[in-house]
Amino acid sequence: MAQLRIALAQTNPVVGDLSGNADKLLEWTRRASDRGAHLVVFTELFVTGYPAEDLTLRSSFVEASVATLSSVAERLAGEGLGELPVVVGYLDRAGVAPRAGQPKGAPLDAAAVLYQGRVVIKSAKHHLPNYGVFDEYRYFVRGDRMPVIRLHGVDVAIAICEDLWQEGGPVSVVAETGAGLLVVPNGSPYEMDKDDVRLELCARRAREAGCALAYVNMVGGQDELVFDGDSLIVDASGELVARAAQFTEELLVTDLELPAATAELGELRVDAHDGTIITVDRLLLSDTPVEPYEPEPPMIAERLDDLAEVYNALVLGVRDYVTKNGFRSVILGLSGGIDSALTATIAADAIGASRVHVVLMPSRYSSDHSITDAEELVRRQGLNAQVVPIADVVTAFEKEVELHGLAAENLQARVRGMLLMSLSNEHGHLVLTTGNKSELATGYSTLYGDSAGGYAPIKDLLKTMVWRLSEWRNAQPGPPPIPENSITKEPSAELRPDQRDTDSLPEYDVLDRLLSDYVEKDMGRDELIAAGHDPELVTRIIRLVDLAEYKRRQYPPGPKITPKNFGRDRRLPITNRWRETLG
Fold this sequence. Notes:
Layout: E1 2-10, H1 18-34, E2 39-41, H2 59-78, E3 86-93, E4 107-115, E5 118-124, H3 136-139, E6 145-151, E7 154-158, H4 162-165, H5 170-177, E8 181-186, H6 194-209, E9 212-217, E10 219-222, E11 225-228, E12 232-234, E13 240-243, E14 250-258, E15 268-271, E16 277-284, H7 306-324, E17 330-333, H8 338-351, E18 356-360, H9 368-381, E19 384-387, H10 391-400, H11 405-427, E20 430-431, H12 437-442, H13 463-474, H14 484-488, H15 508-520, H16 525-530, H17 535-547, H18 549-553
């Protein structure tokens, strides 16, 4: 057996910031070198950031990625780091003739090994995901080569993200190569309960490949996606060896005992068991094992519980959206209700209370407790607050235009949205919307009113999860940030006298179970009824959800935490006569 010290760079690159990402690569490679690592592995498409979406189709962007890769290899050598091999993801092109149905320029989701100032070997992702949030048939062509580098007498194979998730392809080829270690750069977004799935997957693939497996995942927020890190290493039997923390940058350094390489060097063509042939490219970096040394104890970070995971994902999503887009502060309407209370708390935890501005906008229908609950939250958290009563503003509108019923109710919401956007323009704040998934699903949001804003922290939280997260946050060490009355009082939009959400919606525990099955699990009407939902309620709620699609298309982005969010995941036509209730 031979020893290798592996460093997994669980980092937070920024899409489009190629020079900044290159600087980060140098910084983290130096950290790995200082820790005595023999190999450092960065994440999928680290050089460009991920996902870069249609930037991928611009030749100038691809060329910049390739040039940055070569440049950073030279910089590593120039700073004395050239002898430490670096595996890193970047954007490349296939160099094949254009053909119908192929993405413009034939881009590749590629990985390369940097060594001694050069790009010494490279490959590209073989399996291209095209489900959920992924559109990779739109952006990439498939790779058909697998690199295996011999490092200090150990053969190390490289695969990329989805190649681990699908049967056949590179992982099935690894067993044929005799590699002692498989390293996998990833850009795997967070969703609830995914960490357990990842560990089981890595364990199974390690057993299939017959070697240890090192899985490195990026961390950070990118528009609607949040990447949670959770990098890990398992041995050839699938046992967990080391694991990084979630939702934070970390260099996971681990010593491994790996079998010495015995395979012949040279090219090898292997049946990938998915209808393709993969060419194995072997490259000798160093044949001599490292001198025996005392290994460091492996680190296994403690897992977060389910609610802590979700809350940390929301905080990270808000923080990165604010900072990566250059905002100094945020602003939101604070009503005294639970949705705005949780949104304000997430924002304060993300960027600090001093950068969070809230506006209390009482109307003629606002209850006394709404104002006092909002004021109490401001006091507890130290937020910047101002009070702007809207009754006179609404009256001024009503003097000019006669409105009744729902139109009159929505006017109040639109006045509030206009005030927030005006303050955003004046002071440069990012407006946070406070709507939850239950409201978005059923259309209980006012266009250009409470839906106005730039980012929506809780748009993927059903109302029952809003309550659960609020109670969880209050139970954490320190003074509870959310007034108890905001959590326990009956929810109301307060747009007419004595209004309650349950005037027109069922209780939220009933509604949310139905919405979860219809929206997130794509159940049809008959399936929903078979699952135990009330037939009359199924008909009514399906109608509300279907009719509200045009509103959701105009809603701001927000962090995805469920298997199917409104946005990148769930895309239905607005103009659509199909109804589950009619067939």
